[in-house]
Amino acid sequence: MKADAPAIPRGLLRRLDEDAVICAEGYLFELERRGYLQAGPYVPEVVLEHPEVVAGLHLEFWRAGTDVIEAFTYYGHREKLRLIGREHLLEPLQKRALSIAQSVAGSVAGERPLVAGNICNTNVWDPADRATDAQVAAMFDEQVAWAAEANVDFMIAETFSFFGEAELALASIRRAGMPAVVTFAHHREEGLRDGVLLDEAARRLEEAGVDVVGVNCTRGPRTMLPDVERIRRSVSCHVAALPVPYRTTDDQPTFQSLGETGAHGPPGDRSFPTALDPFTCHRYEMAAFARTAYEMGVRYLGVCCGAGPHHVRSIAEALGRRPPASRYSPDMSRHYALGSDATLRRHNQEFVEKL
What we know:
Blueprint: H1 12-18, E1 21-24, H2 27-33, H3 46-49, H4 51-64, E2 68-70, H5 78-83, H6 90-107, E3 114-120, H7 131-149, E4 154-160, H8 163-176, E5 180-184, H9 198-207, E6 212-216, H10 221-234, E7 238-242, H11 283-295, E8 300-303, H12 309-318, H13 346-349
Parallel strand pairs: 1-8, 2-3, 3-4, 4-5, 5-6, 6-7, 7-8
Helix pairs in contact: 4-6, 4-12, 7-8, 9-10, 10-11, 11-12
């Protein structure tokens, strides 16, 4: 009897048309916390120095429910490597990150995760200097070409606070013929840094052929939701929403603006980036964000800088899924004091008020 041919994996757009797609980001912050990446420069040297750690984090995020293995090339571009004197490692770093992502995606059980290439803000583009257009376009083109060579399923272009730079990123991806997810980073100003409002920026990228447009990073769930709603009303294409898991407020709407004072407070007045712990969202806040955004019609969901696997799992479970890590989701009924299991010791349960 002839064996059935393997099923053709579903691509990004088909998955989005059928259900939500979860994308775990936040590699920079998580690997910095673990001691494999330096805050400040934020260059992903770990890809070359400890590839097994990157592969392990990919697997942790997959077990928690991500549908996307995003190659860790964020901030692994020419300008960032120049700052630390390692520009000669650009191509090896990019290719190693893509290879790790593909290897992990091919190693897991069930439907193969999507593999995404990544480009991001260059910190080079300047709206007052049109000569930077060509410089930035060249940076994007070389990265997109390596991703295409690695046969990724789509490209993520993220964390753009300038519309003009996002436009260049999309053009590069379009030239390569790959699906494109483009997300803006909205800071404290009303619009983006070159004066384009978010809804207008989203509309213009949709007209230019983007497949998914939205926001990522900078804002936590509370202050990102109004932006998500504004974009959802403005476009007919799919929308992305990937907040940072921090409790931003109307007065401090971005995680860069969060701050606390005191004898043991962070250097200066800013908690960003290394003293954000007191502002961290718990898993239930991230689940609530995912449900609200999904009800708005947003189908590309995830978490950005500061994300842990437990945040990703909470989003997956909020969408009715049971990823592998759900085997270890909390079951407080069996906690020795807070639980309700009939076999628990009563004297421990009666002690709860004194805990």
